[in-house]
Amino acid sequence: MQRIAYLKLVTVLVITVSLGVVISVALLRVFAGTAAQGIDRGEQPHHHGGPASTGTAQDTKHG
Amino acid sequence: METRSTDANLALTDTHGRQGDTLWAALTRLALYIVVVMTPLVLLAVLRPPTDHGLLYELGKGFALLGFSIMAIQFVLAARLQWVEQPFGLDLVLRFHKGMGVYATFLLCLHPFLLAVGGDEGWSLLIARDVHWYIWIARVGLLLLLIHSCISVLRRSLRLAFERWRLVHNILAPMVLVLGFLHSWNASDDDLKLAVLRLLWVGLLGVAVLVYVYHRVVRPLWQRRHLYRVRNMRQETHNVWTLDLAPPAGEKPYQYLPGQFQFITLYRGRGLPVEEHHFTISSSPTAEGVVSSTIKQSGDFTASIGQTRPGDLALVHAPFGRFSSVLHPEERQVVFLAGGIGITPLMSMLRHMRDTRADRRVLLLYANRTENDIVFRDELCELEKGEYPRLTVVHILSRAGDAWGGETGHMDREKIERLCGGNLANQAFYVCCPPRMTEEVVRALRDLRVAAARIHFEHFSL
Questions:
Q1: If you placed Cys at A49, which of A60, B57, B212, B249 could pair as Cys (CB 3.0 to 4.6 Å)?
Q2: What is the pTM of this model?
Q3: CB spacing of B442 vs A1 below 8 angstroms
């Protein structure tokens, strides 16, 4: 019976940790991007396409 | 029947690990799992490729990376690899596999919605016809994944036969993974442009493909060259049979613990079904040269078990499971609670105790409908009378005849408390009954304040 309890614990642990990592990485990347734009490193904005995009077909890709 | 030495069996037990070793093995495998599925995200955090996307878009990408990693490792969890299964038991590994499958489906379904809400493409990503081919394959892959997950979760409600479900599962799962790989490989605008991530992506796909091919092709081919043979068939009751399986000439049977189970595919010809099913091993590992399973005629496949003949061939994949008293040598007083054909793993343990002259006091509460349904009745009587005198057997019949002088009714809380002598705290309980009865017995034990660590049972329905 203890095995079932461990299974539930492990499942919750994996889900919690993974969601935490996904959110942390997303926040890190967004804030890093904002910071980079804030100090204006002179880089071109990174287009990812859409109807208004003037980029190439490559630009329309998403993650 | 010849028997192996006690020393050999102690060594056998050691190969399956002591408690401390098992805990360590379980933790290392769990840690490895977390590391593998998190690696893409961790690499992103460390390498930080430039992005000008918003939070929702980044979350959407992260969900896809995580979902794909989990999907790839699903193939490892489902491949019945001993290294993965041994510390946990196959029932838990497959339950975890199912849970993670649902979780990955959830993540991958959220992925396009988050990109649509957080990106420039908007909802056209989901509904526009004029999109890249890799968006189309993502849509197809997602649809297949949803169908796949729904069928898997609702299989019993849909009354879908296990064999049909498994066929669908074995086709759809690799398709979804390959479609997901093609989509992510071509659609990613920045993350998967990193060489290290590309390498990891190919690695994840490669591992999944290799394990799948090993599980579905290589290992079965090897096992077909080492087929077991039905040495003997015994009818135990009106609807229960024991198959004695002997390894190929010149080979020894695989080593197992009492209480474990095996997958068997019988090749009997005569128009009889060829399907793989898992059956508990009822023999003791001390039995030389033979492995036995005792099978009740209860389903569409097992209805034909009585037509098996000596000389028929069997593909055997084993052993699996952690429902074994030898893994808990510290338990000196044990209670076996069996219902119907659930006696089989407990019989294996009792035979092993007899052959190794174990120093354990055992109370067996064995529930059946009628006297005619009692499996191993004579052998249990012989064990109790002399071969293993530390055993006490109490039969409980729910539909007893007038001549029956023993316990009647169901195996409920009152009976367990009374027959166990009230001192439940010092006893360990091994429960093997039909699923509903197992739930009721476990609930009764918990009501009687038996610690969870002292209640052992296994989800036999994989």
A1: A60
A2: 0.87
A3: yes
